[in-house]
Amino acid sequence: MAKDVKALATSKTKSLKASETKGLKVPTTKKITQSKSRAKKIKHSYKVKDAENALLLKLKDGDVVIEMFPEDAPNHVARIKELVRAGFYNGLKFHRVIDGFMAQTGCPYGNGTGGSGKKLKAEFNRNPHKRGTVSMARSMFPDSADSQFFICFNDCNWLDGQYTVWGEVTSGMEHIDAIKKGDGANGEVENPDEIISMVVIADI
Q: Residues of 77-101 as b/e, b for ≥16 C-beta within 10 angstroms?
C-alpha cells in the first residue's frame, strides 16, 4: 500500500497570490446569541483535554472532534488554528479519499493543487499514523506542507516519520468513515463531500 503515499503529495501546489487571498477572510455572518451558561455546557459536552487545542469539524453525517498536539507540532497547530479562525476550511472539499487509507482536504481549489500560500517547516514526530490520525499532506519536499491535511481510516505505519502528525480524532470517527470515497486516479472524488465548518472548541 506504499504506492498510496503519493496520494498525499501536493507537488503541483499553487500558492494563492495576495490579491486572491481576500476571499479567504471569514464572511460577516449573523450569529445566534446564546447565554454564557449554555455556551459553557456545549463546550464541556465535547470532553476535550484542552479546548484551545481541539477542533470541532462538522460534516454532513455529524460532528467530529480533533484534539491537537501542540507539544509535538507547535507551528503546524498554530497555523491550523489561524486558518480555522479565519474560516479558511469552511466549505472545502474532501477532494481525495481512498477507501481503507485516508481522506484528504484543505485545498481552496478543491483539486489538490492549492494552499494558503504559507509553507511550513516539517515537524516530524513519533506519533504514529493510525486510525484517526490527522497529518499534513506535502510534496516530495519535507518543508512543503501548507493547508492540506489527511485523516487516516486505518493504521498506516509506512507514513510514520515522513509526515507531520498534528492531531487525532477523539470523537465522531464514524462520520469520517462515511466521507464519500473516490473512484478516480489516486482517489479523486466526483461531487465530493465538504467541510461544513471547522472551529476551535474554545471559541464556541
A: bebbbebbeebbbbebbbbbbbeeb
